[in-house]
């Protein structure tokens, strides 16, 4: 379906009401209302304006003011969660100044007081999102919303915070955004910005354009049936329904004139005439293009791979169906990838049996190293997951058209009612083969630090790209993770608007299994040693990945906020030596 702009548009910030489960300007300054005709009907439009700082609270009944501490209660560089009676705020003292912002990370609700404060920003302890302490604005991801900012005043050595009750309750703030002003000469088959793919990269690109005052047409298209959703939850929280994990409600897209074409696949791109050709023959002209198509899961190549009850988890429907079919039944998972391991953990309590087949001798060996991999494997075995390592699937057998057994090359036969395949993915870039866009030998789109391809006006972002990573001396890398896709989308949008912004973020990811999380920051590819502090058997540790003498990545379990601390050090461009962590 198409999500088209609403006809009646009120000027207000849309704040998504439902709290997520645990774990700005116009081109011409202040815009006057614009009136023009669409289908003969006059429409009024405003561009959103930044709230006027002197009096951000329009309704006095919505405001609370409270004394929260004495000026000497906080040292420089300290944070404190303070209660204002109808909600909490995070009070921060840095360089002699006090700041107050929301106390919960808008992504999954992490307590920011347990995060890391560094040079004017606070970093979330769970997933690494960063917020400016002066404005509350989000500066690194994941998540879409910023923190509300509250007024602080000092009177008679006491610190007072003045805040809106609504902001204290929601703990999130959607940045001000422009709206489209060019719908008068509405032509369905042309757009200023076309975004192919509606994951994190595509959505953040569209939102950033609007936040920066871009008021022309934006169209996103996706093969999915759904509006953009929280993809990591497909393997971490498998029975989530699409409407529970959507990143923005339908009204948001209508309010800010971001059009979404669902179940629409682009078959080819003609970069000379600036036209995208869809599978159904529909053509759309564009001025600027973002390709953010992500990747396609690899399938098995053995006999029986087309059988019913064999899944690659691509959509919420796939995840929901696997949970339903696996309950009290026998599940075989092929591949100890992040997806494979998360699915195994999620199904372990629900299925009758969970077996995991993997070519390596230890899960996550290439990513986390052998010792961490073994500790994770032991945790899985303690939760009734059986591993079949150093082997692969030779055949899937059926009975009455349904999966019955998985046969391994080792000769072992496993009973199986459901099989989930998690053996990696390839970039979804096949449709670009004849386009002239530079693609490497593995199928990744090659971009520079501004997310630009070799074709002017064509940008690419997310899992399908390789880009120069500042952290590793601008080595071209592929980082197929949620946080990075967000940042790619933002950088691409800023450079569509000619800001000349280069990417310099530190990769940050997490995996969740059996109620425990491994957090990871940096880029450990090619590490030659691992320095471990803490206790692997107790699953309370931090692992530093080193290459020659330098720490290139860090992973931890039950050791917050060490990964966020290391991420901040790396983000500042500082080098951590091996001797510093030994």
Summarize the structure.
The protein is α+β, with helices and mostly antiparallel strands.
Describe the structure.
- The chain is of the alpha+beta class and 582 residues long.
- It folds into four domains: 63-170, Rieske [2Fe-2S] iron-sulphur domain (Rieske Iron-sulfur Protein, 3-layer Sandwich); 190-296 and 427-497, FAD/NAD(P)-binding domain (3-Layer(bba) Sandwich), CATH 3.50.50; 310-423, FAD/NAD(P)-binding domain (3-Layer(bba) Sandwich); 515-580, Enolase-like, domain 1, CATH 3.30.390.30.
- Helix content is 17%, strand content 32%.
- The chain contains twelve helices and 39 strands.
- The strands form ten sheets. Strands 1-16-15-14-20-32 form a six-stranded mixed β-sheet. A six-stranded antiparallel β-sheet has the order 4-13-12-7-6-5. A five-stranded parallel β-sheet has the order 22-29-23-24-25.
- β14, α2 (200-211) and β15 form a beta-alpha-beta unit.
- The chain is globular and about 80 Å long.
- The N and C termini lie far apart (56 Å).
Secondary structure elements and pairings:
Elements: E1 2-3, E2 34-38, E3 41-45, E4 63-70, E5 78-83, E6 88-94, E7 97-101, E8 116-118, E9 121-123, E10 130-132, E11 138-140, E12 149-155, E13 158-164, H1 165-170, E14 193-196, H2 200-211, E15 218-221, H3 233-236, H4 242-245, H5 250-255, E16 258-261, E17 266-270, E18 275-278, E19 283-285, E20 288-291, E21 295-297, E22 310-311, H6 316-326, E23 330-334, H7 338-348, E24 353-358, H8 365-368, H9 370-382, E25 385-389, E26 393-399, E27 402-408, E28 413-415, E29 418-421, E30 425-427, E31 445-446, E32 458-460, E33 465-469, E34 475-477, H10 482-496, E35 508-513, E36 516-522, E37 529-535, E38 540-547, E39 550-557, H11 562-571, H12 578-581
Parallel strand pairs: 14-15, 14-20, 15-16, 20-32, 22-29, 23-24, 23-29, 24-25, 31-33
Antiparallel strand pairs: 1-16, 2-3, 4-13, 5-6, 6-7, 7-12, 8-9, 9-10, 10-11, 12-13, 17-18, 18-19, 21-30, 26-27, 27-28, 33-34, 35-36, 36-39, 37-38, 38-39
Helix pairs in contact: 2-10
């Amino acid at each position: 379906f198409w999500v088209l702009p609403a006809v009646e548009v009120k000027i207000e910030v849309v704040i998504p009401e439902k709290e997520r489960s645990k774990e700005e300007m116009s081109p011409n300054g202040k815009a006057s209302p614009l009136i023009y005709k669409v289908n003969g009907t006059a429409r009024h439009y405003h561009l959103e304006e930044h709230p006027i700082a002197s009096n951000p609270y329009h309704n006095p009944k919505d405001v609370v003011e409270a004394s929260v501490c004495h000026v000497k209660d906080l040292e420089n560089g300290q944070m404190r969660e303070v209660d204002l009676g109808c909600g909490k705020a995070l009070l921060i003292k840095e360089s002699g100044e006090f700041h107050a912002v929301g106390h919960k990370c808008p992504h999954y609700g992490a307590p920011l007081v347990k995060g890391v404060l560094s040079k004017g920003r606070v970093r979330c302890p769970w997933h690494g999102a960063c917020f400016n302490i002066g404005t509350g604005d989000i500066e690194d991801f994941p998540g879409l919303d910023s923190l509300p900012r509250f007024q602080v005043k000092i009177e008679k050595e006491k610190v007072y915070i003045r805040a809106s009750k609504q902001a204290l309750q929601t703990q999130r703030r959607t940045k001000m955004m422009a709206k489209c002003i060019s719908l008068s000469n509405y032509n369905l088959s042309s757009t200023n910005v076309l975004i192919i793919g509606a994951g994190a990269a595509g959505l953040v690109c569209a939102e950033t354009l609007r936040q920066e005052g871009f008021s022309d047409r934006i169209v996103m298209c996706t093969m999915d049936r759904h509006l953009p959703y929280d993809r990591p939850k497909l393997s971490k929280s498998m029975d989530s329904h699409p409407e529970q994990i959507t990143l923005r409600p339908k009204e948001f897209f209508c309010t800010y004139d971001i059009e979404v074409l669902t179940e629409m696949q682009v078959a080819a791109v003609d970069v000379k005439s600036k036209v995208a050709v869809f599978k159904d023959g529909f053509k759309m002209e564009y001025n600027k293009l973002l390709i953010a198509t992500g990747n396609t899961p690899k399938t098995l190549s053995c006999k029986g791979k087309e059988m019913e009850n064999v899944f690659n988890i691509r959509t919420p429907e796939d995840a929901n169906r696997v949970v339903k079919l696996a309950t009290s039944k026998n599940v075989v998972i092929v591949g100890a990838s992040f997806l494979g391991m998360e699915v195994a953990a999620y199904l372990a309590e629900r299925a009758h049996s969970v077996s995991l087949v993997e070519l390596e001798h230890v899960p996550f060996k290439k990513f986390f190293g052998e010792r961490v991999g073994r500790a994770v494997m032991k945790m899985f075995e303690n939760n009734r997951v059986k591993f079949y390592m150093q082997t692969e699937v030779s055949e899937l057998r059926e009975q009455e058209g349904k999966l019955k057994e998985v046969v391994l090359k080792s000769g072992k036969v496993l009973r199986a009612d459901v099989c989930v395949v998690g053996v990696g993915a390839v970039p979804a870039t096949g449709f670009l083969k004849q386009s002239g866009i530079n693609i490497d030998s593995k199928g990744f789109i090659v971009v520079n630090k501004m997310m630009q391809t070799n074709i002017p006006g064509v940008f690419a972002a997310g899992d399908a790209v390789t880009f120069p990573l500042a952290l590793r001396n601008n080595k071209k890398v592929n980082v197929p993770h949620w946080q990075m896709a967000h940042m790619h989308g933002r950088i691409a949008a800023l450079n569509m608007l000619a800001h000349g912004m280069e990417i310099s973020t530190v990769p940050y990811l997490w995996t969740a299994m059996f109620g425990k999380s491994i957090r990871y920051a940096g880029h450990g590819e090619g590490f030659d040693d691992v320095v471990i502090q803490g206790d692997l058997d107790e699953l309370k540790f931090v692992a530093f990945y080193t290459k020659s003498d330098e720490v290139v990545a860090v992973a931890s379990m039950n050791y917050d906020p060490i990964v966020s601390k290391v991420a901040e050090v790396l983000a500042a461009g500082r080098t951590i030596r091996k001797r510093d962590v030994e």
